[in-house]
Amino acid sequence: MTSSLLLQLIINGLIVGTLYGVVAMCFVLIYKSTQVVNFAQGEFLLIGAWTCWWLVTSMELPFWFAFPMTFVFMMVFGIVLQMVVLRPLIGEPVISVIMVTIGLSIFFQAVIKSIFGVWAQPFPEIFPVKSVDVFGLAVQPAYLMSLVVSLVIMVAFAWFFKYSRMGLAMRATAFNQQVAQSLGISVKNVFAMAWAISAMVSALAGVVVGMVNGVSSALSFFGIKVFPAVIVGGLDSIVGAIIGGLIIGLLENLAEYADGQFLHLGNLYTVAPFYVLVIILMIKPYGLFGTKTIERV
Amino acid sequence: MAEPAVKPAADEIILSVNNIEVVYDDVILVLRGVSLDVPKGRIVTLLGPNGAGKSTTLKAISGLLGTEDGEVTRGNITFMGEEIANRAPEEIVRRGIFQVMEGRRIIEDMTVTENLRLGAFTRKDGAAAIRNDIEMVFDYFPRLRERVGLAGYLSGGEQQMLAIGRAMMARPKMILLDEPSMGLSPLLVKEVFAIIEKLCRDTGVTILLVEQNARMALKIAEFGYIMESGKIVLDGAKDDLVNNEDVKEFYLGGDKERKSFKNLKSYKRRKRWL
Fold first, then answer.
1. What's the CA gap between B214 and B197, in Å, rounded?
2. What is the extent of the structural domain holding B255?
């Protein structure tokens, strides 16, 4: 019995982990290409989830239409946010930009609360079944959908950065902005694109978590959980972000298992990732996959 | 100032820099009235000691000055008859000027092919044409073809070749080359310069070459400008410059008799051109 519970938790951990990974990837995308540490990443989830919720409940659109609409909205939102708030800050000290993203986070929290209230709202049932049987394990269909979509997004990211013209331009900008400009790349467009993709993909995670736990301000806490994932992976590695996400997802669920079975501390679930974060940073200060610049001798 | 040499009149001037002043950070005056003309399809070199403002001149042309808080505050720069001073660098690349920056500046965490594809960023003529041009670059630089790893692991010479190849990928009308000889062995310098000359001959691309290695630069250039502390102090056709006594002494060296300390004072005085 306990071993099947453990297995269930591991599967859950991996699925939630891919979600962490996707959001961490978005965070890294912004950090890499624009050197901005975006503390408002969690609010992207929040805004995305509420938008989708609003489209489905108030506008009564079918979910399969509302979901892509949310993506489109978030893309526009990301571009506008970059153009209006962050573009004027290009060239300002890092600390100012960080303060602005913290400000944005508080601002969005407040705006969302004033529009949608402080109570969690259940997401309307999208899937006809409560859980799907996968190799004898019960998995929520929303998680299954998130797993599929996350994997698609990861493959798409890999393709985008390896083969597409804009993806290469984004990598060039991450490497050195002046070099990118000398190649004819508009750094402003790259920045706007980074924010757009990041907002869009984070919204996916927001919608999925909202479907499982209900839509509420607590969603932005997911964004905070992403920090350990990002830092474990090394702040500027996209692969690291995914692996970091998986590690944190697994860890949470294993901590819950250990807590529930043996320790009975209460909420090891929430704090375990941060303990591990501290330990990993003590051993590998640049994270598991942090930058090693190429040095020729 | 020395007599301005007779410029090849029949040539069409593709780039014309007129009396520009460049200021960094609103206070530091770096260029104090620089003028130069580059005829189409030729190699023109800009020589001078460290800190003379050669790189700044190139960045003023390519628009990269803006990324370093610099600005053209006076004068104008016309490329094919149109004013381009203080324009965004991406616009200038689209107009056909491509700068190969000092110190190569290839993207180290990308492969050779990815670097080359980035050079073609502004082109809109399709993947097949770009693949073709990658092959063309490999024909110019056969040793790049075998390099499959990250560009950061290439040798200095190969990185310089990649940087030039990346510029070719943009199919520019004009390439600004900033010290391609930097950090290369004499043999490699020869190889790189031979390719620059071949490139100009084959494709008709105009080249403005900034160099410290005056001897090599004057071998392939048809016309030269010499800069010191933010001004052009001498210009002329290649042969005039090569035979000029001051140029010989300050830039070309090779004077057989050794300088003694007795002459140092007068040497230092003469080092100022104006």
1. 15
2. 13-106+171-271
